[in-house]
Amino acid sequence: MPTQRRMRFVHGQIAWMIGTILALTLLSSLSYELFFVLSLIGLLIVTELTAPVNITPAWRRRLLWLIAFGLVGFTIIVVRRILEILPPEVLPW
Asked: pTM score, two decimals?
């Protein structure tokens, strides 16, 4: 049974990522940053939708590391975008 739940999580995440690639391709706005952000959102959604009620298996606890690295990557993307928008006179360097 744990393997079945784990595979349901993996299949859900893969389906989300393939759907993201297809949607971004149809909209002609496929980029690494946008794909990363939408995949992270998908990871968070699939994690919540497949969460067990009573016990948290060890593999789900390890997902916290993946989510943490994803949030760090998201923060880097946001900071880079903000620095691109700001005029050069505002930046101290």
From this structure: 0.86
